[in-house]
Design brief:
With 194 residues, the chain is α/β, with parallel strands linked by helices. 26% of the residues lie in helices and 28% in strands. It has a single domain, classed as 3-Layer(aba) Sandwich (Rossmann fold), CATH 3.40.50. It contains five helices and nine strands, in the order αββαβαβαββαβββ. The strands form two sheets. Strands 5-4-3-6-7-8-9 form a seven-stranded mixed β-sheet. The chain has a two-stranded antiparallel ribbon with strand order 1-2. The N terminus is likely disordered.
Amino acid sequence: MGVGPDPARADDVDEAMRTLARAHFLPPEQRARAGEDHPLPLWHGQTSSQPSTVAAMLRLLQVPVGARVLDVGSGSGWTTALLARLVGPTGQVLGLELDARLAAWGGLNVAAWEMPWAVVEQAQPGVLGRVVPGGWDRVLVSAAPRELPQALVDQVADGGRMVIPVRSTMLLVERHGAHVEVSTHGSYTFVPLR
């Protein structure tokens, strides 16, 4: 599997972002600014990532229909909903958010779109991700650790991919059996991974 984006899936990303507009996943006072291409504040220092960054990450992730996807730092639920749209009803998406209030609100935002194959739950403090048998086909991380967390690398399934900002560099992690390949894809700013 190459690292270049699949044009068909890139079109799917555009369609998902049109259907699941960012405004639906912002606090009322931020909705008028939804079209601005920069992060917008949610609360407790959390942000809604800028749309061009979200699109770039989703294209890099190359989410197939039917995939099992982990969304770490799901925030308002926007990325969880976008991932749910990409995997379709034969897939599964778990959004994890550490902030309890944000996780509850993000969960309601996702539930409003009637995609029961996607949920947002509160992350367990001190635990990165959620271990599942066989691992996750795709992992999206929307907060930046200081170094690549082995705990999340270990949760990527064989043939799977993870997109994660480390410090300020976007990384694509691809697993091929025991071999893990890491490539860099530009510079971005994210809130710290806690």
